[in-house]
Amino acid sequence: MEETKAKRRLSILCSHLRPLGASDSGHAPTHLISSRISNSDSETENNKKNLHQTDCVFCKIIVNESPSVKLYEDDMCLCILDRNPLSHGHSLIIPKSHFCSLEATPPSVVAAMCSKVPFISSAIMKATDSDSFNLLVNNGASAGQVIFHTHIHIIPRKAHDCLWPSESLRRRRLKLDQDVFKLVDSVREQLSVSNDTKNGLTGN
Prior knowledge:
The protein is of the alpha+beta class. The protein has helices at 2-16, 42-49, 57-62, 107-115, 117-128, 178-198; strands spanning 70-73, 77-81, 91-95, 132-136, 152-157. Strands 1-2-3-5-4 form a five-stranded antiparallel β-sheet, covered by helices on one side. The radius of gyration is 24 Å and the shape is globular. It starts with a helix and ends in a 6-residue tail after the last helix.
């Protein structure tokens, strides 16, 4: 009897010592993914910490808690059909980690998303018999962002589809006046400040 109890305790102990995320299917349980952090990669650590937001519809889709029509998936991102498409085949590329805006998204994640655009957009255009597409990011509420989880729109286009009313507007030529030069100086100053901050040159 005592031997049986000892074996059972040993079995339970061994189950706790299994590699984190190990399962019969060979895949890490979703709720444990954020715990698998490499100490040598701070960006990966931030990605894991930000992986899920319980009130984010895209996060729910990523963990299969909300339905979606998936077109593509890899370790970094997911491509789904937009639930309210502007055109047939309108799709979204979404990072699997949660970042509320483009500027909050690490460059490596943005690069991973953008690297899939030629591959995915080509497939979508062929499937929808389109010859063009718009690549769009609504970043911030004033720009039309509704779901605050970074995502890229791929919107298939066909000639004369009249999708954007603004396309019929006549565009004005840029005037090289004082307002433009002030804008250029201001942008360059902000870029310099951002670069100094990134490199730790704050002057303190």
